[in-house]
Amino acid sequence: MTTKANSDLVSADDIKKYRRDGVVLLRNLLSAQTIVELEYAVEQNMKSPGPWANEYAANSQQGRFFDDYVNWMRFDAYKTHALIGALPQIALELMQTTSGRFFHEHVLVKEAGNNQVTPWHNDDPYYGVNSSNNVSLWVPLDPIPEKIALRAIKSRRDFDKNFIPRRFVDQTAYVTDARGYEQFPEPQQLDASTDIESFPAMPGDIVAFHFRTLHSAPATSNYDGRRRVVSFRYVDTDAVWATRPWKTSPPLEAHSLCPGDLLVDERFPLISR
Ligand SMILES: O=C(O)CCC(=O)C(=O)O
To answer: Could you tell me if the CB of 148 is within 6 A of ligand 1?
Structure first.
């Protein structure tokens, strides 16, 4: 039987799975109205990309793969749902804390017929923060069948390792060598893992995963629908500003933050319950 802790949107079993595997699928937690509002924000965002937006499609013959991040100050629905209601509540429940910080949102839209696989990666080494307690909430706005579903390697594989990130566009490593970091495993090695879990999902569902969880997503080359997703990312209040041996992603400026500083900055609003 599924047991609910305190409030709550997330069951004790879901929290247990999240802490054990670094990933959990949460069913039917967002309202249809929330999805409609996020859809509107995504359309506005695609019409008016931010300075860090990317297009990954190699040519105009295939569907777009658009991504962009840190636009929550420009689009109301990103901001509202990042900071109020179900998403921050779920993040806090999964992190088992009463307060945390919103880090940023990341929109990833694969149109039908896009050849670009989202390669295996984990998010932690891309980010200019160090945090052990954190979560990304991957929110699909379209039905996600098995063949285009997000995949993750469960069981916290390689959580203790610092990897050199690879570029999404061609999967090349950011650098050949960096002190304290090692090269990311070969994709074939991860494809063969027996710990892969795949997450077909519907609008209203959420895939929650830790910044160190290895994950990937198939291309949409053999799929004729859109695949719109917004990932909302949260950290516990003890997360600190960090530098990496490469340009971080998102490429946020330090402003007044020094490595090791708590994220006391209006760009990382507090959330609480
Ligand atoms: O949706 C995808 O293709 C990848 C998502 C992802 O890497 C993330 O949200 O961190």
So the answer is: no
Residue 215 and residue 117 in contact, taking contact as beta carbons nearer than 8 Å: no
pTM of the model: 0.96
User: Looking at the domain assignment, is residue 6 inside a domain?
Assistant: no
102 lines ligand 1 (CB under 6 A): no
The best mutation among 138, 210, 212 to test binding of ligand 1, ranked by most ligand atoms within 8 Å of the C-beta, falls on 138
Number of independent structural domains in the chain = 1
> Is residue 1, in this structure, part of any structural domain at all?
no
For the domain that residue 76 is a member of, what is the CATH number? 2.60.120.620
How many CA atoms lie within 13 Å of 258's alpha carbon, on the beta-carbon side?
0
pLDDT for position 57? 73
Largest pairwise CA distance in the chain: 51
CA of 163 relative to ligand 1 center, distance in Å: 17
Amino acid at site 9 = L
Rounded CA separation 200/205 (Å): 10
10 Å CB burial of residue 100 (0-12, 13-18, 19+) is buried
Is residue 128 situated within a structural domain? yes
The terminus-to-terminus CA distance of the chain in angstroms comes to 26
pLDDT for residue 4: 43
pLDDT for 58 = 64
Helix (H) or strand (E) holding 120: strand 118-121
5 falls within a domain: no
Q: Give the residue numbers spanning the domain of 23.
A: 12-272
Look-up of token digits 């990341």: 106
Q: Give mean pLDDT in consecutive 10-residue pieces for the chain, a chain of 273 residues.
A: 60 97 98 98 98 83 91 98 98 98 98 93 97 98 98 94 92 94 95 97 98 97 96 98 97 98 98 95
